[in-house]
Amino acid sequence: MKLYFLPILLVALLAPAGFAQTTSPYYKKFYSLEQQKGWSGYALLSPSWSICSSCSPTGSTVNWARVPGVSSPALNGSSTKHSIGGTRPYSDILWNNHLVGSFSSQGLPDYNHTLVPNLHNFVYDVYFYAKTLSYSQALEFDINQFTGGKSFIWGHECRIAGGHQWDIYDNVNKKWVPTGVACNPVNNAWNHLVIQVQRTSGGHLLYKSITLNGKTATLNKYYSPSSTSWRGVTINYQQDGNKYQQDYSIWLDKLNFSYW
Question: 10 Å Cβ neighbour count for 213?
Answer without folding.
Answer: 12
